[in-house]
Amino acid sequence: MQELESRATAYTTLAAGSDFRHELEVKRSRFITVIRRTGDEDGARALVAGLRKEFHDARHHCSAFILGPDRDIQRSSDDGEPSGTAGIPMLEALIRRETAPGVTDLSDVSAVVVRYFGGILLGAGGLVRAYSESVSSALDLAPLVRRSRLRICSVEVPHSAAGRLENDLRAAGYVMAETGYGALNAVLRIALADQADELARAAERLAAMTAGSAVLVPGETEWIDVAF
């Protein structure tokens, strides 16, 4: 069965790399939050499993994750806290996170909050605030990237011209994917917005840069991280 193409053409996620951690103390209870970029449910569950081992003596390991370009996979767990006081506030913190003014498109992110009970009951409202704030504070520490569905186009050029042309394309603001090297030529890969007018402009720009000797060949689409 062929996978349906996402309705979204771009979304925001965490920059690739290590986890981001934040600790909050509320009335002697410790809330240790870990957020990680995850591309599927197995990765999200692996984060929970790993933290259960690391913080094996904690009372709660609450979690929430949101996945996919269309943000259509959303899960949460209270892990023993009163129903609706942990997982849902954590998930809402992910869903409602503004990545730009008026834009809420954060995805491929998992959050786990490990709680060590401090002996003082917080009440339902206190728990909701603590779990929501824990995730929001952890997100404040995490750099974000724009993940865009781009058309990967190739340009075949002699090895001797590849370095200069790649530098010129980068200087012109194009996003470059990995370059391939054959026996005779190099193949530069340019990631472009999947729009006919954008492809036409790029082809014209490339022709001007190479005196018409290089040809832009559109290929498949890929999801590419683009820094803000």
Structure description:
The structure is a single chain. The protein is of the alpha+beta class and 228 residues long. Helices cover 30% and strands 36% of the residues. It has 5 helices and 11 strands. The chain has helices at 41-54, 87-95, 123-141, 159-171, 196-209, and strands at residues 10-14, 20-26, 29-37, 60-67, 73-77, 109-116, 144-158, 175-176, 180-181, 185-193, 217-227. The protein is elongated, with a radius of gyration of 23 Å. The two termini are 35 Å apart.
Q: Please describe the biggest sheet, giving its number of strands, its sense, and whether it closes into a barrel.
A: 6 strands, antiparallel
SS content category? alpha+beta
Shape: elongated
Distance between the termini: 35 Å
Please state the average pLDDT score: 93
Unreliable runs: none
Topology:
Layout (H helix, E strand, L loop, with lengths): L9 E5 L5 E7 L2 E9 L3 H14 L5 E8 L5 E5 L9 H9 L13 E8 L6 H19 L2 E15 H13 L3 E2 L3 E2 L3 E9 L2 H14 L7 E11 L1
Antiparallel strand pairs: 1-7, 2-3, 3-6, 4-5, 4-6, 7-10, 7-11, 8-10, 9-10
Name some characteristics of this structure.
single chain, 228 residues, 11 strands, elongated, five-stranded antiparallel beta sheet, 30% helix, six-stranded antiparallel beta sheet, alpha+beta
In short:
The protein has 228 residues and is of the alpha+beta class. It contains 5 helices and 11 strands.
